[in-house]
Structures
1.
Amino acid sequence: MSYSEIKRLYHIIQVQLRYGLDDFIPVDPRTELPKKLRKSLFWIKNEYPDVPLGERLRLALQELGPVWIKFGQMMSTRRDLFPPHIADQLALLQDQVEPFDGKLAKRTIEESLGGPLEQWFDDFDEVALASASIAQVHTATLKENGKEIVFKVIRPDIKPIIEADIKLMYRMAEIVSRLQPEARRLRPVEVVREYEKTLLDELDLMREAANSIQLRRNFDGDDTLYVPEVYTDYSSINLLVMERIYGIQVSNIEGLKANGTNLKLLSENAVNIFFTQVFRDSFFHADMHPGNIFVSYEHPENPQWIALDCGIVGTLNREDKRYLAENLLAFFNRDYRKVAELHVDSGWVPHDTNVDEFEFAIRTVCEPIFEKPLCEISFGHVLLNLFNTARRFNMEVQPQLVLLQKTLLYVEGLGRQLYPQLDLWATAKPFLENWMSHQVGPQGILDAIKSKAPFWAEKLPELPELLYDSLRQGKVMNQRIDKLYDNFMENRRTHNQARFYFGIGATFMVCAAILFGDQVATYPAVSVGVGTLFWLLGWRTCRK
């Protein structure tokens, strides 16, 4: 490790200890030695002993920077895994990170616009409306039409911090892979690479603008999800200008109830929106923490989601979608044999895996879970148990599915937060069954024919020509193959003849060696001469 990496690692440990995060280590005889080592190696005391543990965790993650804040945002959605005093504090990381100076934000905006802000906008507010790990938001009014807009501005000097942490994560992933062979199954380097791509993509606000436009188009006319309009004429790589929206933050349960929102329908819509994005569009919002999700004040009986911050999106190819849908349906139907076979067929576990043993291991883990009512089952817990089981069968982490797994946990966490009785399984199963019937049933065949029909119609007039060319090329190819075969046979005959001459020559040489001891010197000389003659004939035959 380089000096800068060691220095950063020490800083991370220092911050964690300064905020007393070692209090998270449970009191147990097995943890006594690590605690003693910690005190002997790091003489750093907890500077905030009177601050609640959840708040200390939030402050530490906030001080460590965007990579760690993102981690805290993800944890904040899993209220089924963390107690309220932890989850409530982590939720503040979603949009209440310490803002940077508004004057600096204005200067950055003007540099991006190429002129004074007042030339295009009125009523700029230097006080940030919201501040997150990578960017912060300011409000203004667009002069040309009087519409309220927001500026999203990238934090200054944020990229070097992210790159330093990612570099350290790479180094740690490589060390873990070398020291712990079992960790290779988790493919830590590939996972860090995927995380790096995700974070660096967030630094390019033109990419976010394109993602927002795509997601808005995908749900055009759909009353379940609204994506604000983006003003691309004013946007750039470090500035995004978009429509200002008014809504209730999804984490504000009391506000949603006061507005009369149908929380059951809202949570079910979240599941349907997610699966629609994944399976219909192959393009899903992958950063659905509560800071990015609002609910419209209008039509609370049929609530509409509002999605912000499309910097992180995920995609799946056709094969991954098919295997994922079949896996989920097999789980819903408790068909563990199918789950095991799909894992082998997709290459997620080695092809020589014993399917019977794998099926039995999955059944052993999942059956006790499914004994509970489905509305009480956490899909996150099922996934974790499945991965722990699959580890025994050398299952590798699929980097292309990491974002999807994380987003699915977000969706479940949000849904259960809104409506604790949410039955994610019952909500998702009809959608997946309908999607699969469209993919492999008669409707799927008709849809495939429809999509290919224009291409076939375009190529149909060329079909006779293509057929003639194929036949002619086949004839020429057969002639070439015949010629190559004749050449091969001729070379084979030549080499056989040459080997025959070399063999006779070698025989005469052996005879010369045997006759060398005789009194008559003529016989060995003649044998050598004849042998040499046959070797020359063999060499000449090879040269042909």
Note: The two ends are 63 Å apart (CA to CA).
2.
Amino acid sequence: MKKRLLFLLGLLCLLLITSVAILAQDTPSPAGAQGTGKITGVLTDSLTGKPLEYATVALLSNGSTQATDGTLSGENGRFAFTNVAYGSYEITFSFIGYNTKTVKQISVTAAKPDVALGTIKLGMASTNLKEVKVETLRPTITQEADKMVVSIEGTALAAGRTAFDVLATSPGVFVDHDGNIQLNGRAGVTVMLDGKLTYLSARDLRNLLEGMAAENIKNIEIITNPSAKYDAEGSSGILNINLKKNTVQGMNGSAYAGGSYNGKQYGYSAGGNLSYKKGPWNSFVIMDVARRVGGREATFTRVFKGAEEDVYFDQVATGNFVAQGPPSVRAGTDYSFNDKHSVGGMAYYVTNYLESDFLTDTYIGNAPNQPNLYVEANNYNNNRFRNFTSNLHYLGKLDTLGTTLSADIDFVKIRNKGEANFYNYYTDLTSENPIVQDFLYTNTPNGFDIYAAKVDFATTLAKGRKLELGAKASRVISDNDSRFYFNNSEVPILDTRRTNYFVYDENIYAAYANLKGNIGKQLSVQVGLRAEQTVSEGELRTTGQKNDRSYLDFFPSLFVQQEVNENYQINYNYSRRIQRPNYGNLNPFFSYRDPYTYWQGNPNLRSQYTHSIGVTQVFKKTYNLVLNYQLNKDVIAELPAIDPATATTIYYIGNVDDSKSMSLTGIVPVKIMKKWDSNNTILLSYSEFNMVVNNEPVLNEQFFYMFQSNQNIALPKNFKLELNGTYYGPSAYALYEVEPRWWVNLGIKKSFMEDKLDLSLNFNDIFKTQRIVLAAKVGEGNINDFDQYFRQRSVNATLRYRFSKGAKVDERRRTNLEELNRTGN
């Protein structure tokens, strides 16, 4: 292991030395070569000469209406733009109560890369009018070399909505009932907040985002092919939600309360967020209390082809769950020693109690519609869940050229304490035999401890090239105990065949180097390499069996951005990724659903590797056309295994040999009318999965298409209407064939009290069409069909109030960079 680590570090050092030597050499620039400089200045009141703080400063290319960068003036009125590409610019200064001012013909050149504008004076507006809030309805979408940035700040889309709402309507993003996220039709998405991993389950992440106001979001980065800077984990990319930095002195925040009904269950949520800034301290707290409800209605049809006779299995099922607990709390604070160094911390704690049931009626026979056995299986589960997540971080700006050093330490503690009762009643339909009862009980305490530390360094080299270096170490300890009992007598009897105790310990050591810069005037390149050493040990303490692994992987990435002309840009990218098995999937436990259906973990799961190649074309800085190819090796997927003799199906997580997919995605924002914006995503793809089932090769292939459209309409009297429609065509996943489905969501919002109070009403899956119908054919003649509806149709009402208790002058500081959107279309 030490030799591998030394080799890893040596290779990275060689890459860095070679890259720096090539790109940082101080040779004369060819004609037209691109470089960078900076623009600085001070903003003051024209009458008093006092510095103006928190004014909006927007940087635009000459003759353009779209801002290329933006900032706020500091507490001393100073402003600065660094890493400004050579060219001609103009800067617009905006501040509430003052006249807007534009300084034109600012040239940043190789001869004069640093431009000092001196003192810029703003005059007071002659009339004291009420603030006019100008917003765009839809977010601005910017395509960078390695990511797509959806700007939320200052748009009507953010007003009165939650962070979850905004994420779920981002281009190509789909979130299911449990909070699992797909990007462009593919699962395996990593979600980050401010560049930090959340370490939350899908459902807990959804709870956190539903309790967070969208007004807190600056932008969402959709990173389909992440660079070497990011963890290599995740086959479909990263969604990074960047929150706004609080610039308002004093106190401000929001509070909300809402209710929901899905036709059978009532739920509620309430909470709020509070930010406080004074001097060097900047703190926040977010609280959310909720009663989350859900369920499903389903039918399962199976046919088992036997050597002598067939078995027909027909099941109707109903499931319900309710999760509630004390308020979840996310709190944090930052302290700035000066304008260069700051430290901070964040903590998140949530606990809830989940009660669920799964009730099934099953008919089994040797001919269609001729059952000879009826089984009533009633499952009742409860679980106490606790999650504590914490982070300490440091950020240092070591110079004015963009050299930064940051460090993070994370600790996560997750605990689950669950138990379940299974009541099974068997009735022989061919005789008058009495009902046979079989009662079972499980106790499944488990938990995870996660430790992580990382350091990142970035610096600017000659000619504007940027070098990024970093290292990370993490450790996960998973402790899982599953006890299974026969519960047919007064004293439960331990079932040793289905009882297991599994402990998993995983260590990952990583280092990366990332280098980006310009080659000529129209071409920029970013190249990176990440190395990750994984050392793990899984021990089944019930039997003493151990499974040790140690492997070193390299994950290269390459991005090329070509500016063909002002209205046409092409991005090329390549990356290699890994998806390690879920910790729970490695547990070799039986999860019981009914006497004929189990789910089982797999300690022999292998990691999945993904090669991804993409070409993105951007037209008029607005329309995106993305061509992507993925090759996945050792695909991790749920697979069914059947036993015709007992009519039993065991679902397990296994490795499919490989899969390939080719996709074409179009993102088309359209302004239909002045107050009607539309954002549309069209996806066409072809996927195929190759695997071996019962020693026979199986190919599952499918042409897939998806259309997603979000309509935002501003109505009179402060009403806003949003209509979301999605259509998913037929798709393939491992052994499963999934039928088409579609749904329509409708939302309407009314604002009161000068936009401080919002009342929202949302109708989800209006036509009750978001039904999941799929089939898996295992072996000749065997059938395994699903038809499930997860109660997506619901109505939700939310009342949200925003407030600010800062000093009176802070009302003029509340720009939130909305003016940057005013400079666009």
Note: Residues 473 and 509 are 5 Å apart (CA to CA).
3.
Amino acid sequence: MTFLPPADLSALMRTCQLFADIALLPLCAHSIIPLKASEQILSFLRFLRLDRPSSSRASLIKDLTFSLEEYRAPVTKASYFTVQEVERTGPHAHPLMEEQQLRATRNSALEAFLLILRHCTNIRRVRVDRWFEDVPMAPLYRAITALQKLEDLRMPMLPRSQWGASEGSLANLPLRKLVLRPGRWFEIPEMLTALQPLATSLVELDIPVCQWVAPAVAFPHVRKLGIEFPASEDVVSALVRTFPNVTHLFLRGTRNFHLCHTHSSRQDEDRLREHSQYQWHSLTGSWPPLVTVGAETPCALYTLAIPFQVPRVSVTSSAGDPAGDMLRTILTDAHPTCLEMRVTQVHYKYEPRPPRFSGLAPGDATASLQRFILTMEGDGIPDYVKVSPLLIDELQRALANLSVTHVLFKYSIDHFRASRHYTRKVVRTVCAQAHTRAAAMAQAVPSLRWIGVYVRVKAGPTWLYCWDLVRLSERAQGFVLDPPPSVSLKEMSEHEGWDVLAEQEMDELARAD
């Protein structure tokens, strides 16, 4: 029964009382499926039978994921390949009236979700991927802080004015994982101090504070850390002292620090890099080996000046980022075997276009590089399809002289809410071009053995197209011909592709939001 989808399990339960009893727990285990539509949330509320305490199922729910989309984005793969648009209901439907109906439906779903949280008191994991600016967060915060068995929490950041003002506190929960997503309000520099009661339990922490103050108490059990980059001369000491056992580190940039296009700011970064290098000398052996390190800007990793090898490195490059020349220094510091480059806002076009991969020239900095992930992020608008091939063509030229064996193109697409048609059009085009892009890259990079194209619609479905590469050397009279060997692409299933990504230790970066 654990392999049956929820619809089949529900149908099985309706056949007889025996199956109604033994299929209940497997069906409740499917609560990890995101509740995306209002109808799903209301249906789940009815399934819990809260109005019948003697037969209520609320105590069986251990995991909830909430990802309500206000604009009714398609959630199935087939819907993205349906060309016809869904017309508005009724011959005289008005956009304003439709918006009001959507808002009313959404509000009823939010009320139902809060009711579910209040009654499912045995929940161990809650993930809230989206809340809405016109809806107060205080009721959500109160409902979550009442879950005394909660160990894993992901939710939007509470406004600063409400932090600590609601009943209870996140710090009073037995949390092992805490991920707070940024909203419009996240300047809470004293948050680490407020979370000090969790220092003995937290294993994973990701908080979006712009400027953080190192607390008096360390967090010795945190292994995965996502935090804003502390732009100060004691950045290395502050990180090592506060999080002494981190193995996965992701740094975000600050609003007023990484201004590399100005001469004075670049001088400041060079000066801070020297301070970091000096601190590393006195902290040799005090940090466990980092497995993965990432940053929203190259400046953070450049200033951090990591003095030891890190297997996986992720660097985000914004459109027109002036810090591209830092990449080579970062690679020389960390000597990664797997590199992810995240290119944001790929739908913007620049003339002349800034070089993205100039730091990948052959040499000591790239000698260890074996695997590469190109993540392209942006809204689902037509320019996304026009510009992303230009990035891939530029990457082909950069990787042609390197020894990279595995390459993954990752399209991370936001819904273009002004027109759902454009998002579906982008997905159809990218999927249709996957084989062409893979074949061109395979021909351009002689060392390549595997290539994948991963298409991910945020809060929607995903596709993974992947191929093993077979190179057939052409011979004539015992001599190898001058033309490059022909390449044969052997298609793999999605399951086989994820196995390859896991084997090559690329799946963590590939699945990252």
Note: The CA atoms of residues 302 and 329 lie 7 Å apart.
